[in-house]
UniProtKB/TrEMBL annotation:
Organism per entry: Orrella daihaiensis
Function statement: Part of the ABC transporter complex PotABCD involved in spermidine/putrescine import. Responsible for energy coupling to the transport system.
Catalytic activities: ATP + H2O + polyamine-[polyamine-binding protein]Side 1 = ADP + phosphate + polyamineSide 2 + [polyamine-binding protein]Side 1
PROSITE patterns attached to this UniProt entry: ABC_TRANSPORTER_1 (PS00211), ABC_TRANSPORTER_2 (PS50893)
ABC transporter domain residues: 13-244
InterPro entries (UniProt xref): AAA+_ATPase (IPR003593), ABC_SmlMolc_Importer (IPR050093), ABC_transporter-like_ATP-bd (IPR003439), ABC_transporter-like_CS (IPR017871), Mo/tungstate-bd_C_term_dom (IPR008995), P-loop_NTPase (IPR027417), PotA-like (IPR005893), Transp-assoc_OB_typ2 (IPR013611)
Name of the protein described by the UniProt record: Spermidine/putrescine import ATP-binding protein PotA
Assembly behavior: The complex is composed of two ATP-binding proteins (PotA), two transmembrane proteins (PotB and PotC) and a solute-binding protein (PotD).
Record bears the keyword ATP-binding: yes
Pfam families listed in its UniProt record: ABC_tran, TOBE_2
Family stated for the protein in its record: Belongs to the ABC transporter superfamily. Spermidine/putrescine importer (TC 3.A.1.11.1) family.
């Protein structure tokens, strides 16, 4: 096992080369290493089957670790039984006891830990206030809305002051508006109490808005682990660029490298500049990555590094913005997001336009 740094708070939770296989053949998680600081909010993000939930289940103790080690506060928990790990969990299904009142649901984790009646009463009152449900203690789960039930499930996971709180797609069953409200509630409680969170989701917007850092999974391997801003603005590879937010990919060939800038020729014969990703070489086929909101349509009042001619196809009205679709010389499409205001341009199908963008907003990845 690699040595742990001296600051225990910065190395509160450590995954060290954790691997999970089934039947010695099917690799689910490959050499996963991650260090989490005390009080940090980490999201494991990725498509279905990418390994993120398996990591969470190994941390909870519901899945065994094939090799590697998991430690909390300097102590290995790899072989510790789940009920001895002092971990709180919040599930998509709420998992509340339907025959118990809300107060009884909150009291249950304290009762099994042999807390005194006075402490249980005070703690239940405190956590009902924390989730702003002071008047709901006598109700049953079936009498609450989905959002209220999820707030109770969150309070029950926190009330016994666990070392970690694990959340597995906790908002997946809620509608969009309620989901956004609960994102705010979880973030508010995290900032108020300061508990350490490992959060699993496949919803990139949820991950970007809630997390201190995000680990992006694909096929059992972490592609990149970084802050939301770094993941969005500087994706490490084409998978991350495609999975996080929206992206346009433009085919091209790297003509030459000028430091960290790749000079790329696109199918129309035009040459554009992009930031060269690791491993990119002159003469190599490339995929240029540039986000729709980083593209602009001439005329514009600013100067841009890159210009490309394109043919207007259609536009979609989305409310606060308008999405324009253009066809490039090779028949591929790109889309441009433009704020819905009086300056939004109008085109007829087949009209020629010039699309522009900055070097710093474009990345060249191996094709």
């Amino acid at each position: 096992m690699q040595s742990v740094e001296q600051d225990p708070a910065a190395n509160y939770l450590v995954f060290n080369q954790v691997k999970k296989t089934y039947d010695q053949k099917t690799l689910v998680v490959k050499d996963f290493s991650l260090t989490v600081a005390k009080g940090e909010f980490i999201t494991l993000l990725g498509p279905s089957g990418s390994g993120k939930s398996t990591v969470l289940m190994m941390l909870a103790g519901f899945e065994s670790v094939t090799s590697g080690d998991i430690s909390v506060d300097g102590v290995s928990i790899t072989r510790t039984a789940p009920y001895h790990r002092n971990i709180g969990m919040v599930f998509q299904s709420y998992a509340l006891f339907p025959h118990m009142t809300i107060a009884e649901n909150l009291a249950y984790p304290l009762q099994i830990r042999k807390k005194s009646k006075a402490e249980i009463k005070d703690r239940v009152k405190e956590y009902l206030a924390l989730i702003e449900m002071q008047d709901f203690g006598g109700r049953y789960p079936g009498q609450l809305s989905g959002g209220q039930r999820q707030r109770v499930a969150l309070a029950r996971a926190l009330i016994f002051e666990p070392s970690l709180v694990l959340m597995d797609e906790p908002l997946g069953a809620l509608d969009k508006k309620l989901r956004e409200q609960m994102q705010y509630e979880i973030t508010r409680l995290h900032e108020t109490i300061g508990f350490t969170v490992i959060y699993v989701t496949h919803d990139q917007t949820e991950a970007l808005s809630m997390s201190d850092r995000i680990a992006v999974f694909n096929a059992g391997v972490v592609q990149q682990c970084a802050t939301p801003a770094e993941l969005y603005e500087r994706p490490a590879n084409a998978f991350v660029a495609d999975f996080i937010g929206e992206n346009n990919f433009i085919a091209g060939t790297v003509e030459r490298l000028e430091g960290i800038t790749a000079m790329v020729t696109v199918p129309s014969g035009e040459q554009v500049k992009a930031q060269a990703a690791d491993g990119i070489q002159a003469g190599q086929a490339t995929r240029l990555s540039v986000r729709p909101e980083k593209l602009f349509i001439l005329p514009t009042s600013h100067a841009y590094d890159n210009h490309m001619k394109a043919k207007f196809v259609t536009r979609h009205y989305v409310g606060d913005f308008i999405r324009y679709y253009f066809e490039l010389a090779d028949g591929s499409e790109i889309n441009v997001k433009v704020l819905n205001d009086s300056a939004a341009p109008t085109f007829n199908e087949g009209d020629q336009a010039e699309i522009v963008w900055l070097l710093g907003d474009c990345f060249a990845y191996p094709a």
